[in-house]
Design brief:
Elements lengths: L2 H10 L2 H7 L1 E4 L7 H6 L1 H4 L4 H6 L2 E3 L4 H14 L7 E4 L12 H6 L3 H17 L4 E2 L23 H16 L10 E7 L18 H17 L4 E4 L3 E2 L2 E2 L4 H11 L5 E3 L7 H4 L6 H10 L5 E2 L3 H11 L5 H17 L12 H7 L3 H14 L1 E5 L14 E4 L24 H6 L7 E4 L9 H6 L9 H17 L2 E7 L18 H13 L3 E6 L7 H6 L2 E4 L7 H9 L65 E3 L3 E2 L3 E3 L4 E9 L5 E11 L10 E10 L4 E8 L6 E2 L5 E2 L3 E8 L8 E6 L2
Parallel strand pairs: 1-2, 1-10, 2-3, 3-4, 4-5, 5-6, 6-9, 12-13, 12-14, 14-15, 15-16, 19-27
Antiparallel strand pairs: 7-8, 11-16, 17-20, 18-20, 20-23, 21-22, 21-26, 24-25, 26-27
Helix pairs in contact: 1-15, 2-14, 2-15, 8-9, 8-17, 9-10, 13-14, 17-23, 20-21
This protein binds 1-deoxynojirimycin (NOJ).
The site of 1-deoxynojirimycin has 7 residues, from loops.
């Protein structure tokens, strides 16, 4: 439709019809009898039949057949036959589930993520969806927060790269194109920094921390062209994000130039009342619309108040029109006025969902996301041999629930377990597969998840599992111990105060370690955990996150060396929970600690080291690499020319392998203090044994910019340090000068 026609259509709408475009309801409202909805969920939200008939978008329902039917019925009864928008959380896959986002960031391969998002978009589009509530661009430094699994970690550069890759993958050149969906960057802003890691909690960020770290990810997603943005639940410096003018008008629309559709998070406009900000629903509606929040997700706040607010003259019709037009423009951009069903097709669903090529991609992505944290005595890889006695013991040996709590469109049935994959390779008569212990401590599921569908074991059953496990471990040459968090221990509303494994699993690990020292722990988790004890008892530790549909295959691929583990940590694994929030790119103090010194008055803990157990950027492979000192092509950088930093990378091991070289910079002194180092680039390089290669990074003025003391963003001349290293704690820096020309 031409823009003019769209504007004419807007002009024809009544106030109620306009407000309707700004209301989003759950899809199940449209799957059942309207009477039942009105007396049930609709009544709870204070909705009328008209509100439901006029709502402009729905969330949480998918499937070509269902959505086509909903669209047809809806449009027939809509006074102007305006199509609905269908939105859903397709976070790391639709039916083919790829590794969780934090795991994808561990690949340090945004190109891989773009492919995964493109595959997810194809499946989602065939299922009738138009928009995915993804990517989540929230930066996270606190592993207690459950949604860390859905983030890309602690570094603004990595978060930015992976946010961009997801937007590109979902949308391609244009979200209206076949097989594409519109991306929604969320949660604007600062949702990843709740006080004490507790979900939905207050966020307090200084202007410097906000702009230099937290804002970057959203900015990258918007620059990549995301059609939508979602507000966050939290307050930011005292004002709920969803009604925060500085955030939404000044920064998002003004500075970042976002002109797409802004949607609230689920009931977030209404929650500004509970926050103690908006006095009532009428005020909440006014506050949010004035901030340019276009769609109210799943409450009656807009539906019940907007038209009346215009009639009373509290808000202008122009303000309402501004938001309605943005929604109509998105529908138009997706081509829905011409084809309201877009790509919805049962045939395509049958062809695409869980198709072989998507599964192959999921297997490759999962294997690339695993991080080898420890590998003493080259315990890994294991070459499966006839007659070799191997014991797979642990609650994740044959568990299908390996897709994360955010894979809400995915199913666990198609998932490949470790046992299923291992049986394809390991000697059947000498390999045992045992559960070893329950996944959770007694009573935990009922208490923590407020549901009790996890099987409970009697103490006798638990003892029997443990006895059997210890007996098998005694006999085995190698024990593979797949342990981990339950998938409901991370995700939304899954904050944890402790970063440990369930005690029942630790008991298994300790008991096995008493009879066998050759333990390879395969660790499933949605977050960094305190791994001190796990690491102490294991010869090797492989972090596999929530790996998705092809998890079992990918794990066996890496354990047996068919694939090398090339993942690197996109987030620090703290020494203990007492260190969080923690990130490598911290500011120095006036009294930096010297662990070998004798001075007590240093910035340090009395009981633990300052350093995380496994730092950002860290990860082992199956070969060894040496990195030469950094060389510069000249000693000085100017704003007119770039500087090249070069190292020679050599594979000194016995097999072909891949290293991830990371470029870090430090601004030595400035008008505000700068981090001890910041990642500015990375490159994955594959070399044959004995092979060496020069690897270079270009450094430019833009990389040196930050929020200066005078409130402007820019660089400052002076001394800088540069590292090119295998991780955030490795390598030695060289210095250069930056001068303006
Ligand atoms: C709440 C979550 O915070 C958000 O990320 C999600 O997109 C919506 N629910 C819709 O499911």
């Amino acid at each position: 439709m031409e823009q003019k026609q769209l504007e004419n259509l807007l002009g024809e709408l009544s106030l109620e019809e306009k407000a309707g475009q700004l209301v989003q309801l759950m899809g199940n409202f449209y799957e059942t009898d309207v009477e039942a909805v009105l007396t049930g969920p609709g009544k709870n939200l204070g909705l009328t039949e008209e509100n439901i008939r006029l709502a402009g978008s729905i969330l949480g329902t998918y499937g070509a057949k269902t959505l086509k039917k909903i669209q047809k019925n809806y449009m027939e009864q809509h006074p102007h036959h305006i199509p609905l928008l269908f939105m859903m959380d397709v976070i790391h896959g639709m039916k083919t589930i790829f590794p969780m986002p934090l795991a994808q960031a561990a690949t340090f391969e945004p190109e891989m993520t773009e492919k995964c998002a493109a595959a997810a978009a194809k499946e989602a589009a065939a299922s009738g969806l138009h928009v995915t509530f993804s990517p989540m661009a929230d930066l996270v430094r606190d592993a207690r927060w459950g949604r860390v699994m859905e983030s890309c970690g602690e570094d603004p550069y990595v978060v930015g790269k992976f946010t961009e890759a997801q937007v590109k993958g979902f949308q391609g050149e244009e979200p209206g194109a076949p097989g594409k969906v519109c991306a929604c960057v969320k949660h604007f802003a600062g949702y990843g920094a709740p006080v004490a890691g507790r979900e939905y909690n207050t966020v307090e960020l200084s202007e410097h921390t906000f702009r230099d770290f937290y804002l970057k990810g959203y900015e990258a997603g918007i620059k990549a062209g995301a059609g939508m943005v979602m507000t966050s639940f939290n307050t930011l410096n005292g004002i709920p994000a969803s009604v925060n003018k500085k955030l939404m008008r000044d920064i998002l629309r003004g500075e970042l130039g976002f002109d797409g559709v802004l949607i609230s998070d689920f009931a977030a406009i209404q929650e500004t009342i509970a926050h103690g900000y908006s006095e009532n629903e009428e005020k909440a509606a006014q506050n949010a619309l004035e901030c340019g929040v276009d769609i109210d997700m799943m409450t009656g706040v807009y539906a019940g108040n907007l038209a009346e607010l215009v009639r009373k003259g509290v808000i202008s019709e122009e303000l309402l029109d501004e938001s309605v037009l943005r929604v109509l423009e998105l529908k138009n951009r997706l081509g829905l006025f011409e084809n309201p069903y877009k790509d919805a097709s049962e045939n395509e669903e049958a062809k695409l969902l869980l198709c072989e090529s998507h599964r192959a991609l999921a297997r490759e992505a999962a294997a690339k996301s695993f991080v080898l944290l420890k590998n003493e005595g080259n315990a890994l890889p294991i070459k499966p041999k006839k007659g070799q006695k191997v014991a797979f013991i642990g609650p994740y040996v044959d568990r299908k629930a390996i897709i994360s709590s955010w894979a809400i469109t995915g199913d666990t049935d198609p998932c490949v377990t470790i046992q299923e994959a291992a049986k394809e390779i390991f000697d059947a008569s000498n390999t045992v597969y045992l559960e070893g212990c329950p996944i959770l401590d007694h009573g935990y599921a009922a208490h923590a998840f407020r549901r009790d569908d996890e099987k409970e074991y009697t103490p006798e059953e638990e003892e029997a599992l443990l006895r059997e496990a210890v007996a098998a471990a005694k006999e085995a040459e190698i024990v593979i111990l797949p342990l981990g968090e339950h998938f409901l221990q991370s995700g939304e509303a899954a904050s944890r105060a402790m970063l440990d494994l369930p005690e029942v699993q630790m008991r298994l690990l300790r008991a096995v370690s008493e009879v066998n020292h050759n333990i390879v722990t395969v660790l499933f988790s949605g977050r960094p955990l305190d791994l001190r004890e796990v690491s102490r008892y294991s010869a090797a530790v492989l972090e596999v996150w929530f790996p998705g549909t092809e998890g079992g295959h990918a794990i066996v691929d890496v354990l047996t060396g068919r694939t090398e583990p090339t993942g690197r940590l996109p987030i620090s694994f703290p020494y203990s929970v007492g260190q969080v929030p923690i990130s490598y790119n911290a500011y120095a103090t006036g009294r930096p600690d010297d662990p070998n010194g004798t001075d007590k008055f240093k910035s340090r803990y009395l009981d633990i080291p300052n350093e995380p157990l496994y730092p950002f950027g860290y990860g082992l492979g199956y070969t060894k690499f040496e990195v030469s000192p950094v060389r510069l092509d000249c000693g000085q950088l100017t704003n007119a020319a770039r500087l090249k930093a070069i190292v020679t990378l050599k594979n000194t091991g016995a097999r072909t392998g891949t290293e991830t070289l990371q470029l870090y910079l430090q601004d030595v002194s400035a008008s505000v203090v700068r981090p001890v180092k910041e990642l500015k680039g990375f490159k994955k390089v594959t070399l044959a044994p004995g092979e060496e290669q020069e690897v270079s990074f270009e450094i430019c003025e833009e990389m040196l910019r930050f929020l200066r003391a005078d409130g402007t963003v820019g660089s400052e001349p002076g001394k800088f340090r540069v590292w090119i290293a295998k991780g955030s704690t490795q390598g030695a820096p060289v210095e250069f000068l930056y001068q303006e020309r």
